[in-house]
Amino acid sequence: MSTGVIALLVAVVGVAGTLLAPITTAWVGSRSRRQEFELQQDSDRAKRHIDDAQANLERRRDTYVALNSGARRYRFLMMEDLYAVRRGADPDPATEVARVEFQDTYAQAQMLVPDDVLQPCQTVRVALAEAKKLMDSLTEDVPHDQQKWQEAHAFLIGMWEPIGVMQLAMRQDLGISAPPHP
């Protein structure tokens, strides 16, 4: 190759490089901005996912607190009613309010909590309904049958077990208590 051809090739490459440099720079800059945008979108999506998970955890925790305190309060008021009936007094109207509040909280929980927690909650709900039936039959019975009173008393005392199972399931779901080892 002659020096003239080489000089011409070098000149063409130089001119092409000069002309293509702004295009290449723009392309690299655009690609870099696109990657930054995608990384920002991924980061925003991950943050939203974490925020959603945290909000869901807080909703479940609030529901668990309401279920636990509602079940305990309703059981406590039925126990007080049991002793009131024994003395010949009427049941406290607050017991019915506690029953309705617990049922409302349970209805909300049905749409929020996982099945492994909902099952013990259902057991407590059914036990509370059974206790109410026992209390209703006892209040309708005048004079009060001592055997029915003892049965209702034993049933209400025994309710601590299903309430404890419900509490443990809730604590495990929240990551507070470790699941039992097989």
Tell me roughly what share of residues is in helical segments.
over 70%
The run of helices and strands is HHHHH
Largest beta-sheet characterization: none
**What overall geometry do the principal axes of the alpha carbons give?**
rod-shaped
Q: In what range is the share of β-strand residues?
A: under 5%
Q: Number of helical runs? A: 5
Query: What is the CA-atom radius of gyration, in angstroms?
Result: 35 Å
- The tally of strands reads 0
CA-to-CA gap between the ends?
A: 84 Å
Structural class: mainly alpha
Walk me through the topology:
Elements (H helix, E strand, L loop, with lengths): L2 H85 L5 H18 L4 H26 L5 H13 L1 H14 L9
Outline the structure in words.
The chain is mostly helical and 182 residues long. Helix content is 86%, strand content 0%. The mean pLDDT is 88.
Relevant terms:
182 residues; mainly alpha; 5 helices; 0% strand
Brief rundown of the structure:
The protein is 86% helix and 0% strand. It has helices at residues 3-87, 93-110, 115-140, 146-158, 160-173. The mean pLDDT is 88.
